[in-house]
Structures are given as C-alpha cells and as structure tokens.
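Notebook entry, cofactor series.
This is the third protein in the set we're modelling with a bound small molecule. For this one the ligand is magnesium ion. I'm keeping the input format identical across the series so the outputs can be compared line by line later. Sequence and SMILES below, as received.
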Amino acid sequence: MPIQTLQVQQLKLTNYKNYTFQHFVFGDKLNFIVGKNGIGKTTLLDAIYYTCFTKSYLTSSDILATNFDSVFFRIETNLTLQSDNQLVEVKYLKQEKKEILLNNAKIERLTDFVGQFPCVIITPDDNQFIIGTSELRRKFLDATISQFSAPYLQQLMLYNKIITQRNAYLKSCFEHRNYDSSLLEIYNQQLVQAGNFVFNARKQFIHRFIPIFHEVYHRIFNGNEQVQIRYESDLNDNDFEILLRNNENQDRQAQRTTKGIHTDDLVFELNQFPIRKTGSQGQQKTFLLSLKLAQYQIIQSEKQIQPLLLLDDIFDKLDTERIAKIFQLIHENSIGQVFISDTDIKRIQDIINTHSITQYNIIQLGESA
Ligand SMILES: Nc1ncnc2c1ncn2[C@@H]1O[C@H](COP(=O)(O)OP(=O)(O)OP(=O)(O)O)[C@@H](O)[C@H]1O
Ligand SMILES: [Mg+2]
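Returned structure with ligand:
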C-alpha cells in the first residue's frame, strides 16, 4: 500500500490565544507563515498540533490558551487523509470538560484518536530537550510511540494514574502514621504490569530508532562525530516487582514512588561525552534536527501516513546547508505537507528562489491590520 498523504486544508480559530476569529486556507505542500513578533505564528502552528494531539505543545493549560476576553475557544480543522475529508473540532469551555469531535462524532477516549493525524513539530524551545530535564525526553518518547501504538498510550495513562494513587497513599501513611503493606502490594501489582509494558515498548522503539537516527545524522546532515543514544531506566537491570519491594522503605520516607519508568531518560552522547555538556550549539542543533526527522521517518513507516511537519522559526537556528537539506527532502517527497514560520518575508522569498520552489503558499499574518 502506498504511503498516504495527510493535509490540513483549512483551519478556523475562535478565541484561541490572540485569534478572536480567523479562517486559514492552506496549500498542499509548503506553507510559509510570515509575520512580526507576537502576531500569532507559533499559535497557528500550535493549533495544528492541538488538532493532532488534542493538546497544545506549548501551553499545558487550556485556560491560558483561551483568549483573555473569552471563556471558550474553538479549533476547527479540515483535513484530507488520502482523498477522504476529515473534520476535527476542539471545543473548550472554561470549567467544563473539553470536547473533541471527529467528523461530528464525539471522541470518548483519547487513545482512540491520537495517531490518526500524525504530526512532528520543531520549535525554538526544543533545545531544552537536549539540555533540559529528563521529563522532556520522556515526552518525546511518549509523543512518538503514542502516535502509532494506542495500547502504549493506554498503559502509560494507567501507569501514571496508579503512580498518583500510590504516591497519595504513601503520603497519607506518612501523615497518619499508619501503614498497610498489603495495600501497597495491590498498587505494586498494577504498576508492574503497566510499567513493564511501557518499558518494553520504549526499549523496542529505541532499538529501531537508533539506526534511523544515525542515518539522518550522518547521511543527511553530514555529521561526522560519533553519536550515541542510550536508554536509561531503573528497569534495565532490575525486575520491577523486586525493585518496588526493595525500595519500600525508601518510598515511605520519600512519600513517593522513587523507582520506575517515570524516571526514565535518554542520554545523548557526542564522541562519548554527554552532548548537553560538551556539544557546540551547532552540534546540538544537528542532533536535535536528526532526532526529529528520525521521529518523522519512524512515524511515517509505522503509520504509512506522511506526518505533518511544523517548523517554528527554525531559520535562525540553522545554517543554509541544513536548510537546503530539508528542502531537498521536501522536494523528493520524503516529507509531506510542511508549515514553516518566519518573521522575514525577504528570507522566505530568497529561499523560494534559491531552491526553485514552485508548490508553496505564503500566509502573511497581520496584513490587513
Ligand atoms: N490567552 C491569550 N489571549 C490573548 N492573547 C494571547 C493569549 N496568550 C498569548 N497571547 C498573545 O498572542 C500573541 C501570539 O503569540 P505567538 O507566540 O503566536 O507569536 P509569534 O508570531 O510566534 O511571535 P514570535 O515571532 O515572537 O515568535 C502574543 O502577542 C501573545 O502575547
Ligand atoms: Mg513564535
């Protein structure tokens, strides 16, 4: 079966951040979003991301994503998957449960929806992903695997729920000075099942991901350093059940679960040193971009759908050679529909001329204002 194309045709935003109401129509291939600082470029890309994941990439709170003068927001997105029309609606009303509709039918479970419209995003904040806390790297793993494995997302959500309950129990034991180890045992049983599932899925994924990453890093971006990705987990060398039992006292004292896949991390190395400590900014950029494009490739091959690619303000971060590589990939059809934001219309026009781009659309924000 040929790889299916996915395209956002139209997007309507109502009271989403600075957009009180706006209707966008996109082109099938390359879409340049141009406008001044603070005009809403990132917000527009994030609204597309929202459509795919039912949450924002940048704002964890829907209240903050709602226009300051309103109590609700709406994102309505018309997509085509191959030639089928798809309509995704996100309806948020303050203090009510958020509604997601696909072709007018309400989505009851997130796990039924996520992954239908795959998407990869690259933003200026993503360097945090290399230099910041492990949470961001787990988020990368989760956002990737969830897009092609609904059971993964289910087990992950279950795991997080049990961790919250177990931690609450440990806290209450500490406060009330009573403790029932058989109750903890029940939590442990549930945790072990979900935890092992997530661990195995992550391990398998990394195993597949590493060669693709190497290929992108060395072949596409001509990186000549030795690069390595390692998956670190408490479960690598330990049976989870035994680990939980051995750490019972420590958990009671800490009033939280200290071991498990919620502390997993990815270690990125360059010539055998952690890249966040020794890598130059350019090396970190190449590393990051390779991670994201490898993410793109793996999602594409799993789903047999070309994901949407959202590139927010990447030109400031990349040299012309790497930019050329990206356009080459787009030109070769290795990448489907792309959204690129930038502040500088002249730079976009230069890029269009340099790369002889013919299939593109420019959306200039704030033009009529
Ligand atoms: N809840 C909200 N209600 C109204 N306006 C908001 C809300 N949240 C953010 N904004 C404003 O929305 C605007 C859009 O920000 P956005 O980050 O999308 O701009 P941008 O075009 O990407 O800018 P830059 O070029 O600096 O990256 C900003 O002016 C911001 O202050
Ligand atoms: Mg921005």
